[in-house]
């Protein structure tokens, strides 16, 4: 009995195979080009395990159609990556693999990985953000993704400009929303160099932390989750989480009593593996549900 | 078989009795004074029906303790209404009525009323706000309240000041959060008169609509719910909802495809009865769950 994972990212795909204990036995990665080419590699990888493969979990870049009763369920929909627009991802897999295939966003998959194995283990409610080239978020309560007419797009929430920040924001839709002010490209545009080249004591990080703290603040008031996890490249700056704690506490002003801050606003314990483990756990859940 | 409802508001209590079809047969209201006095009236009202009463649903002003495994479950906790601080609401009822008693916030109760009988009927996911002397919000997905370390406090989300607005906000905790900028007292402080005395074409309503629209925008991106319901005194200005639609669409800039705006951002169909019907539905659910 094997489970498959597909992390379908905008720049690369990561596919993995795990045994029934969800121990990863094989993992491959290839660049995201066009569906014909990339999906051919995906299918070739999993065909090696076809006899034992019980289910596949997919976490995809989006937006995607998650409504099981929709004609375009399992499609990537209005992505700016033109070759992938209206691509029938789940249908393409189903033609070759007649097994349960779960379908959610890349950030929901990472959130689920942390919920099952990471910082959310044993908790009831988790919100996960990735802060990288974009900002995305996913929320889980009692094993269910928070969603409705579609999956969330949390990275585009509104933020109040920091008084020392002259940057106008670079979100093509909203200008100075959270993603437009705090994703990697915004940091680079503001500072004139990449985040990894900016020293930890540069004031630009205080500005960055103030936006992440606003995100944590809104998340606290709208979900009151048990934990808020911030992953992604920007949060690999290890000094960031403590700056976010301070800015968050100042904003919240003791209005509600959250769990202890060190356990409440955290970075992912699975690091970059959260998405793969999330896809695997979703695949196993789908398999157990069917059998 | 009868069900009871207690809407415990900061200024008045509304108690009701309904039959098993949740048709209201009796309703009383009295001012919120001190627990000894007000709860005596509550208990006297329900004691008339004690033999037939199967369950009571309570929707209370807060903050409240909703964790069943907490020592102070069923308490009103850190409310500014001093006489009610740390008051054991559910325990006080349980001493007299040995039946299931459900316990949630006043706004969650109203959200549940709309979810079961109103604008959320048949939908999977609902977010409800009341915009009145304060702003509160509740979210429901698949019959479960969204909550974690506590219930949400959505009314205090951050908003970006409107460029034509000189008002600095009057939230004692956060100054210019949503409640500080858009609740009834903020409208009155900004305009120098009460909302009901301000004509529909006064520019102050465009400012108000811009804040409610920001709330709808953040709610859309964080929950992607099937519907967002705005109730409360301020939304009784019938011209408001259309102003909110316009401001919301401008903010969203077609980034995600929501349901049709007229069906997506709406006012409550149960009007002021949402809370009572929500409490009754929660009471019935608890009774059916036990039996």
TrEMBL record, chains A, B:
Name used for this protein in its record: Fructokinase
Keyword set, alphabetical order: ATP-binding, Carbohydrate metabolism, Kinase, Magnesium, Metal-binding, Nucleotide-binding, Transferase, Zinc
GO molecular function: ATP binding; fructokinase activity; metal ion binding
Reaction equation(s) it catalyzes: D-fructose + ATP = D-fructose 6-phosphate + ADP + H(+)
UniProt keyword Coiled coil present: no
Family under the similarity heading: Belongs to the ROK (NagC/XylR) family.
Source taxon at top rank: Bacteria
Gene behind this protein: scrK
SUPFAM superfamilies per record: Actin-like ATPase domain
InterPro entries in the record: ATPase_NBD (IPR043129), Carb_Metab_Reg_Kinase/Isom (IPR051804), ROK (IPR000600), ROK_cs (IPR049874), ScrK (IPR054618)
EC code: 2.7.1.4
Family matches, as PANTHER family: FRUCTOKINASE (PTHR42742:SF3), TRANSCRIPTIONAL REPRESSOR MPRA (PTHR42742)
Cofactor(s) listed: Mg(2+)
């Amino acid at each position: 009995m094997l489970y498959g994972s597909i992390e379908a990212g905008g720049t690369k795909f990561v596919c993995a195979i795990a045994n029934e204990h969800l121990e990863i036995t094989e993992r491959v990665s290839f660049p995201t080009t066009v569906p014909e080419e990339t999906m051919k590699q995906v299918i070739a990888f999993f065909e090696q395990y076809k006899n034992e493969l019980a289910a596949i979990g997919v976490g995809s870049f989006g937006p995607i159609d998650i409504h099981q009763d929709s004609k375009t369920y399992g499609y990537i929909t209005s992505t700016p990556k033109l070759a992938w627009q209206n691509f029938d991802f789940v249908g393409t897999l189903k033609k070759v693999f007649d097994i349960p295939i779960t379908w959610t966003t890349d950030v929901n998959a990472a959130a689920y990985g942390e919920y099952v194995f990471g910082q959310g283990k044993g908790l009831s409610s988790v919100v996960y953000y990735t802060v990288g080239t974009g900002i995305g978020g996913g929320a889980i309560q009692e094993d269910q993704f928070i969603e409705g007419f579609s999956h969330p797009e949390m990275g585009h929430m509104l933020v109040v400009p920091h008084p020392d920040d002259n940057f106008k924001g670079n979100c093509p839709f909203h200008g100075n929303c959270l993603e437009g002010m705090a994703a990697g490209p915004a940091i680079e545009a503001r500072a004139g160099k990449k985040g990894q080249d900016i020293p930890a004591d540069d004031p630009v990080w205080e500005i960055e932390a103030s936006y992440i703290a606003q995100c944590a603040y809104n998340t606290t008031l709208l979900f009151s989750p048990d934990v808020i996890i911030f992953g992604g490249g920007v949060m690999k700056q290890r000094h960031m989480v403590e700056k976010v704690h301070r800015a968050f506490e100042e904003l919240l002003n003791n209005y509600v009593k959250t769990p202890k801050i060190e356990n409440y606003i955290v970075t992912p314990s699975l690091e970059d593996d959260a998405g793969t483990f999330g896809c695997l756990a979703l695949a196993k859940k789908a398999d157990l549900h069917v059998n």
